[in-house]
Structures are given as structure tokens and as C-alpha cells.
UniProtKB/TrEMBL annotation:
Residues 2-514 form the Hydantoinase B/oxoprolinase domain. This is N-methylhydantoinase B. One of its GO terms (biological process) is glutathione metabolic process. It holds the Pfam family Hydantoinase_B. It comes from Hoeflea marina. One of its GO terms (cellular component) is cytosol. GO terms for molecular function: 5-oxoprolinase (ATP-hydrolyzing) activity. PANTHER family: 5-OXOPROLINASE RELATED (PTHR11365), HYPOTHETICAL 5-OXOPROLINASE (EUROFUNG)-RELATED (PTHR11365:SF23).
Amino acid sequence: MDGVELQILWSNLIGIVSEQARALQRIAFSPIVREAGDLANGLFDEKARMVAQAVTGTPGHINSLAAAASNLLAHTDMTELKPGDVLITNDPWMSAGHFFDITILSPIFRGDRIIAYAGSTIHHSDIGGYGIGSGARDIHEEGLWIPVMKLYEQGRPNKTLFDIIKRNVRTPDALMGDLGAQVSSGLIASERLNALCDRYGLDDIAELSQEIIERSEKATREAIRKLPSGTYHGASKFDVPGGEVIDLKTAVTVDAEAGEITIDFEGSSGPSAMGINVVPAYTHAYATFAIRSTLNPDLPNNAGSLAPIRIKLPDDCVVNARYPSPVNARHVVGMYVPFPILKALAQVVPDAVIAEGSGAVWTIQVQGRDAAGKPFTSSMFNYSGGMGARATKPGLSAICYPTGVSAVPVEVLEASYPIAFTCKELERGTGGTGRQPGGDGQRIGYRMRTNSPWLLNTIPSRLSNAPEGLFGGGDGAAGVFQINGENIVDTRKRQMQPDDEVFMITPGGGGYGAV
């Protein structure tokens, strides 16, 4: 395909998925989607290969969505798909790793033929069950499990499924509104892709997608071939809710001749009794992100650029969750997956990696009744610590690598829920020292505006194992989590009193290089 023609068509595709994501954010009910951008949008060809992704989104969602399309279609009779059909699932092993992340896949028809699929995954405010915390003992305590089904059939809603979903969640209006936003974003993608085909005289996007995917894979393999072949090891240690310490170990094998990288997690911690286990698709999502962002971050992220990166997982491993392991707080471990990989890559591309950062976002969910007696359940809201320092720049403060989710503004949270913040500011000096210092964490305090007891689900990490510096850089500071001034380690769902105050300091990032 002519290079100029390809660039024009590629720009159109990026415009389509970006408009799809913007529409989803504008229409969504929940602050976690609307304000924080905890979402993913992708466009897939007729073979269910991801061709393009929106610029908005998290790596965990985007790269899980890349696998989800083929997983959904493998459980669907594709000969029975009709215009107006919309597929849905929140199966953790098919998509993004826990029940809160619901994936929607809409076939895009041109005439009577499917030419593509529009997909989206977003974090929903509630899915019933335990909530966003890590305290469930098996997956069936964690909420409503939606198998692969048709949410809409030929444009008509599946009333039975809608009724089941609404009856099993605490905030049905918010959840159904967010589902509607996902469906609407798929309709926009369908309209825009058909308009592109009309504009450029295309019957489908088969040739275009093949060209994009082949070029992306070739460019990724060429970037890998610049590395010396060999096996490089990295390890990361961190504590999670309840004080459990997790070890993640990786052996990163570079095959320069084939242009492939294999990441083996042998030696990592075994399964956890808490809901922090990570399904393979989510592990793969953050592992490939670490490689891609280090080697050639400007390349498109699609089926082609992901193909040369493979992972190997031991059978009994915290990052290879098996049924019926609890997984609701899988991000607490999953967001640490890049760090041992980056430590391994530091041995071959030291200027392209970063020191350890705070890791997983600190996630909070509150439930109860406000002063007027009206029930509330918040969507989760997140707070980040400091990012690890880079070779030539300091780490960013209150920015969480690798997720990229924004913090919901305090003003939005206070307007949406009966919460009152007592402080929110950077905690200076928490970043590690070094030639380039690590980013600082932040301090946050809040109370609930209620006259009755309320429930707190929260998931801090790195309360004892601080982020490590790199190449002689200093470690960042560990985090602090307190209730009424008392340090708390066991943060499973607890009942709180109206006057209780929650206070936390998120960890600082590690420094890079000796001073």
C-alpha cells in the first residue's frame, strides 16, 4: 500500500477510535470514567485483531481488550450475528481481570457483511458482591458474573439480562448509564468507519488492517533485533493489604535473530488467599506495556506490535490466577508487573528505563447513607504515589506509572458523594535521592458527611517495602495509612463511624543514579 495513502487512512482510524473514546467519556455517568479516563477503546478487523486503539485509556484495559475480542467471538456463533447485536461479558479470564471491568463488543456491518468490531472496556461503579477490596475468599463472593451474551439483539435490549444486572448491583442507574455510553460509542465507531469506506471507496478494511499489523510487527521485531541476545533477570518485592509480601521475578530472554522477547515469571510468589490474584491477560497487558514503552513507544499499539512479545507463567503463581481464585483487587499486583521487567531491561538499555515507583494506585470505595438517609456507593477513586526517576529527568510526583489513570478532582468527588476532604497536597521529600530524584507522593485526608456508620474498602500497598532506587539512586519513602491517627495494615472492608477520619501518604518513587 502506498505510504501516503496508508498514513491518511491510519490517521482516519485513530480519529475514529479517539472520537469513540471521547464520546464514551462525555456520556458516562461515573466519575471514574468521565473524569479519570479508566477505560479502553479499540477497533478490530474482521479477524478480531486489534488494529488501532484510542489515545485515552489504561494499559491494563487496552492490552486486555486486545485479547478480549477474540475471546468473546470464540464463544459466539458468528453466523448468527446481525446488525444491531452487541456482545457483553465481564468474565475475568476473557477480558480485564475482574468483574468491575465490563467489555462490550459491537460488530460493524457494511451491507450484510461484518467488516470490523468496535470494543470498549470500562470500570463500572458497582457489580454487587464484596466491592472493590481484596477481602473476598473466592471469586463467587466478588459480584455478578456475566458470561458472553447479547446485551442487544438486532437493536433491541435483552430485557432479561438488563433486569438481572439491575437487581444485582447497588447503583443500577449509574451502571446502566455507563453501559449505554459503551454501546453508544460503538455506534459512533460503526458510523465513522462506514463513512471512511464511503469516502475512499473501500468495501472493507481487510487490506488496510493487514498492512498496519504487518508493518507494526516488522517495526517491533526490528527494535528487538537492536538488543543483544541473552537472558536478563529482574525482581521486585512489595507488600499488599494485610501485610503479605509479594515477590515478582522475571527472566527476560531476547532472541535478536528472531526479533522476539519472552518474559518468564518462574520464581514469583504463589497464589494469594486475598483477592489480588492476576489473570494471564492482565499480566500480559502490563508485561507487554513495559517492553513496548521501553523499546519503541511511538509505534502503534496493535496485534502486530504485541505479537513478538510472549509470556510464560508458572502453574501456581499470583500472576496466573486459576478459578476460583479471588481477583477483584488484581491491579494491586498487576500494576507492579513492569518493575522486574524494567530491572532486567536496565542491563541492556539503561537509559530507556525508570526506577521503581509507588506501583499500584491506592483505591478507595465508600458505601453508606448520607445525612438525609439516601444510600450511596462510590465508584472507586484512586490516588497515586511518586513515579520512579528517569535517566535524564526526575520522576513525576503523584503520577502512577504504569496505569495512567487520572485522579478524580476533589471538587467532583465532594459534589458526587457525601465526602469532605481535609487535605490533599504533595508530600515533599518522599521521592528517593539520586542524580535524578524520584517523584513525591501525596497526603490525603477525608471524612464522610453522614450521621450513620459507613463502609470503607481501600487497598494501599508499599506500607513497608519502599520503591527501590536504580543504579545507586535512593529508595522512595514507604506509604502510610491511618484511621483516626492509628496506623492500619489490615485494610479489608470495615465499618466506620460518622466522625472517623482517614489519612494516607502514598509512597515516593525511587531515584536514578548515585548523587
